[in-house]
Inverse folding.
């Protein structure tokens, strides 16, 4: 076994990994990468089909991000945000507020002719004005949760017991508060004794919705569903019941357009707008988890207003949250950094005299880290370029075209795509939607077979996730889907 692989086996404990299985084989040891390509210690090349766990937006070794980090290294790599400000974090906060103002970043480059723009977004009534920096997606949600909790207590009264509503299958991170917002037993049940109670409501999972009367077809289940928006009705019942209890929900927490760890579950058009309107009607704050979907990953309509281009999934349906949680792609996948954006109204609830202790008592050693902020500024600049817009438009088109070939496989039950995110659900037979048994490890075995064919990704249960970097070419997309096709055929063939 290669020496680095031996060291890994000897000392490293990997996340979300059954280490007994891990220790049975030599791991792939990544040593370098460029664009959408990764290389291992033996020199073998792989396509990065999930952007290194959904983080790397522009490809590895992007020259503009490399240069931004190098310039900052010549100044300072980090100084504390407790009592001090710094240049790149201040500039980044301004940029994020501008980006989130109504779903767009100031777009100065010529818009490519082949990009079809969607309808214009509506200016929200309450802008996101303040930015709290943290380290990752979990902490971004933890910040939003704590702020929403304290804001609710301070505005509704000290006797209020804030309660939160999120979706079935929700995953919002691994810190204790974020886990409490989640509803995936496989991940969260083991920590039940550490958590506080939150409520859940059904997710609009069209492919397996009990209210969907449509028989299986060879298409995205959202396209042929037959229902009466019962999923929205369930949300309304939940809000109404909680209001009758005399304690309306403090906040509704959601991933807009697509739930990631739940199994790449997309929301049908109109669902998000309807349920967030219900939340507003019941005075609940909106917490948008855009850790995966943010920075153009789930955008497909390319909405624009006043020369500003949409970069967030919630704005696809004209939804402006009270808290916008960002991480993963924030730095282009280079450095761990997160941000929670909120309104002036929330911020004002924490203002007071020193002795009143209205301070937000929460923080991180690396809050507003200069290297991370510099990488994020460069990433936003890239996203604002005509080349990046063209790449995002082409990537989702290439994905959509190539994924059609998978319908020929009887083990492909559903193919769902939102922007540059795709999830392929594997089943025993598409006609029955019968799932594989957990012990069969269908998704894992397919991904292992894909790795042998030079494509790296990771399953979400038996859903194969494809989230390539924006720079991925049509030829590379074709290879990713072809590797998946062959892996399913060989691995799951009856």
């Amino acid at each position: 076994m290669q020496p680095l692989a031996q060291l890994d086996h000897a000392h490293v404990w990997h996340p979300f990994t059954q280490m007994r299985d891990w220790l049975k084989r030599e791991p792939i040891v990544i040593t370098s990468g460029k664009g959408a390509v990764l290389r291992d210690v033996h020199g073998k090349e792989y396509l990065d089909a999930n952007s290194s766990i959904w983080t790397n937006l522009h490809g590895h070794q992007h020259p503009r991000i490399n240069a931004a980090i190098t310039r900052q290294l010549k100044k300072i790599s980090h100084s504390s945000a407790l009592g001090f400000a710094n240049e790149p974090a201040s500039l980044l906060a301004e940029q994020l507020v501008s980006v989130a103002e109504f779903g767009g970043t100031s777009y100065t480059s010529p818009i490519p002719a082949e990009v079809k723009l969607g309808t214009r977004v509506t200016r929200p009534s309450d802008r996101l004005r303040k930015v709290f920096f943290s380290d990752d997606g979990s902490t971004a949600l933890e910040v939003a949760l704590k702020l929403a909790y304290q804001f609710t207590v301070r505005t509704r009264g000290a006797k209020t017991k804030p309660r939160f509503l999120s979706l079935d299958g929700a995953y919002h991170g691994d810190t204790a508060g974020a886990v409490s917002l989640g509803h995936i037993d496989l991940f969260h049940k083991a920590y039940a004794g550490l958590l506080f109670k939150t409520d859940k409501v059904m997710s609009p999972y069209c492919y397996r919705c009990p209210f969907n009367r449509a028989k299986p077809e060879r298409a995205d289940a959202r396209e042929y569903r037959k229902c009466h928006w019962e999923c929205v009705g369930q949300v309304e019942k939940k809000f109404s019941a909680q209001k009758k209890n005399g304690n309306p929900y403090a906040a509704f927490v959601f991933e807009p357009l697509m739930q990631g760890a739940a199994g790449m579950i997309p929301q049908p058009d109109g669902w998000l707008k309807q349920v967030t309107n219900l939340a507003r009607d019941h005075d609940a704050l909106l917490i948008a988890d855009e850790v995966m979907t943010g920075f153009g990953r789930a955008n497909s309509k390319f909405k624009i207003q006043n020369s500003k281009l949409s970069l967030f999934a919630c704005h696809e349906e004209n939804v402006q949250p009270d808290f916008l949680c960002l991480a993963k792609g924030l730095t282009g996948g280079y450095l761990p950094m997160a941000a929670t954006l909120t309104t002036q109204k929330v911020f004002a609830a924490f203002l007071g005299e020193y002795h009143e202790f209205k301070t937000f008592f929460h923080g991180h050693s690396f809050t507003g880290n200069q290297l991370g902020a510099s990488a994020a500024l460069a990433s936003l600049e890239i996203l604002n370029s005509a080349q990046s817009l063209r790449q995002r438009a082409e990537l989702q088109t290439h994905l959509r075209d190539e994924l059609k070939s998978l319908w020929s496989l009887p083990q492909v039950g559903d193919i769902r795509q939102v922007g540059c995110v795709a999830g392929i659900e594997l089943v025993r037979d598409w006609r029955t939607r019968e799932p594989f048994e957990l012990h069969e490890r269908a998704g894992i075995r397919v991904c292992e077979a894909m790795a042998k064919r030079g494509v790296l990704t990771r399953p979400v249960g038996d859903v194969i996730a494809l989230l390539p970097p924006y720079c991925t070419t049509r030829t590379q997309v074709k290879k990713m889907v072809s590797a998946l096709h062959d892996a399913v055929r060989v691995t799951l063939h009856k």
Q: What stands out?
A: The radius of gyration is 22 Å. The chain has two domains: 3-62+391-491, 75-384. The chain has a mean pLDDT of 94.
